[in-house]
Amino acid sequence: MRIYACTSIKGGVGKTASAVNLAFASAQAGHRTLVWDLDPQAAASFHFRVKPKHKRLGRVLVRGEVELDDCVRSSEFERLDVVPANLSLRRLDAALEHSKHPERWLTSALEAVSGDYDNVFLDCAPGLTTVSESVYECSDALLVPAIPTPLSLRALAQLMKFLHARDQRRYRVLPFFSMVDRRKALHRETCEWIHAQPIRFLRAEIPYSSLVEQTGVRRAPLASFAPQSAAALAYAELWREIEQRVEARREEARDEAEPPPRLVDAQIAMWREHRAT
Predict the structure, then answer these.
(1) Which fold would CATH assign to domain 2-276?
(2) Which of 169, 207, 171, 173 has its CA nearest to residue 188?
C-alpha cells in the first residue's frame, strides 16, 4: 500500500482538488483507493458526498476507541472509498500532543487498512503541525502543489527546510505547479524558469480552470463529468508521472534525494532577480 499526502504549508494552492482528482485517477486505473480527509473543513468529504460515522472522529481515533477501517465510507465511484472529516479534527493536534509517539500515529492507524487498498491519499490541512509531522512520517510521497507565485514558492522552501532538519533524504517531496494561468507573464515565466533549474518539480502542470471549481458544485471529480477537459487530462498526466517517479525512486539510491533547502532558497532568490530585470 502506497501513501500519498497532498500537503503544503500554504492554503489555497489546490491540495483538496489534487487529492480528489488524483485519487479518482488512481481508482480509474484499477487501484483500490482510499482518501483520508484530515482537514477539519472536510472539503474532500464534501466532494465525495460522505459524512463520518463518528461525531468526535479525531478523539476516538487517537484514543484507539475505533480502528480506521470502521471509519471508512464508500463513495459513488468504483474502487474509491473515503474516511471523511468533520470539525472535530480541529482538536486533533491537541489530542496528539498528549499521546505517545504522535509522529507515528498515522502509520499505526493505517495498518488497519493495509490489506484493503493499493493507494491512500491524505488530504491535509495547511500549516506545519503535529498532524503534519505524522503525515510526513507515514507517506511514501509528499505531493506539494504550488502556484507559480513568490509566496507559494516560499512556502515550498520553508517545508523543505523543515524536512531537511529532520533528515530530508527520508522524504520524497514531489512538488508540482497548480492553478497555472499561462496568460499571465508571471505564471508563464515562473514555470519555465523553475523547470530549467535543479529543483525537481514534476513536469505536469494543472491549469487554472473554472471546471476545477465546478467539482465543488457538482461534488464529483473532474474526470467524471469532463474527462476530455484540459484540466482533467492534466490530472491524469500528473498521476502517471507520480507513479513513474515513485516507482523509479524505488530503484534509485537515496543519494538522488531532493535538492537541499539552501539550493531552493538560492534558486528562488535568483528567480526574483530574474523577474526584477
Answers:
(1) Rossmann fold (3.40.50)
(2) 207
